[in-house]
Amino acid sequence: MSILFHTKDISQYSFLVTGGAGFIGSHIADYLLKHGAKKVRVLDNMANGKQSNLDVLKNYPAFEFMEGDIRNLETCQQACNGIDYVSHQAALGSVPRSIKEPVYFNDVNVNGFVNMLKAAVDNKVKQFVYASSSSVYGDEPTLPKKEERIGNCLSPYAATKKTNELYAQIFADVYGLKIMGFRYFNIFGPRQDPDGAYAAVIPLFVKGIMKGTPVYINGDGGQTRDFTFVDNAVQVNVKGMLTDNAAATNKVYNVAVGENFSVNYLYEACKEYLQSDAVAVHREERAGDIRNSLADISLAKNLLEYEPSKKFEAGLTETIEFFKQLYSTNGQLIIG
């Protein structure tokens, strides 16, 4: 991540990244530490976070790890103590899992979110940015997706993220918190979890192709997604926290590239890069999934000077290289 996403001297500021042992959070923390932040505190309960992600961060003197759960208000208060900027990434993030465990998702994604907002207000945080999701668009069929036009939620996960946006507006209006949300569109990249029942599609594809295990595609594979490399999520979080543009606060932004590709195309690209002729197995469509996704990113461009730094093909190459290094020739994990 060589491109600079900020112009301010961040050596005088302290940052909190919740969920910083996870995929996106660890990349945000890594960027801030690499560029000389005064302090970067990571709060994570390690339910989904990985020690290998913390190992990347722990060599920086400004790094501080706090193990704790956002469902505990006192923990959130302690985490926000002495913090200037918050990037809230801690959440549960799987549509099918949310359908199975709606109460758990509400506890973490809604109750935990409100705890973090309250702690940010009480500790006079300068700016609070948080992860929302493109799932908020629900059954709204129009492409590209524009922030002001949303439909009915299709899953408990989507409902929690829509609720986050409602609470964010309340905390901006009632408590004066400077806040903005980011509707992520299919973020992918190194450190994304290749294991578990709810692993993301790109690491699952690469893992299956490399290990010779079955690769599954939901439905006919013609569904499209605005696949967005993780550096772009880092960029918008950094710019969102540090912006001086008053017009940019108290809004929700699409975070994407503005291009979409089918799941079938993605699988073929992985196969070609890995020089494989493995055939994917198609299975029934997944409940709660939308058919097509494509973002209008003009709002983030105009107000946050967001510009995708790495598009699909370049990001996919970097991601596959990362996962190739995760596996030895016999297909066993060698790190992580």
Description:
The chain contains eleven helices and 13 strands. The chain has a domain at 12-188 and 227-255: NAD(P)-binding Rossmann-like Domain (Rossmann fold), CATH 3.40.50. The protein is of the alpha/beta class and 336 residues long. It starts with 13 loop residues before the first strand and ends in a 10-residue tail after the last helix. Helices cover 39% and strands 15% of the residues. Strands 3-2-1-4-5-6-11 form a seven-stranded parallel sheet, sandwiched between helices. A two-stranded parallel sheet has the order 7-10. Helix 1 (23-34) packs parallel to helix 2, helix 1 (23-34) packs across helix 8 and helix 5 (102-122) packs parallel to helix 6 (156-175).
Shape: globular
Quote the average pLDDT. Answer: 94
**What level of helicity do the residues show?**
25-40%
Would you report the number of β strands?
13
Pattern of helices and strands: EHEHEHEHHEHEEHEEEHEEHEHH
End-to-end separation: 20 Å
Q: List the total number of helices.
A: 11
In CATH terms, what is the fold-level topology of the domain at 12-188 and 227-255?
Rossmann fold
Q: Regions with pLDDT < 50 over 5+ consecutive residues?
A: none
Overall radius of gyration: 19 Å
CATH top level label of the domain at 12-188 and 227-255:
Alpha Beta
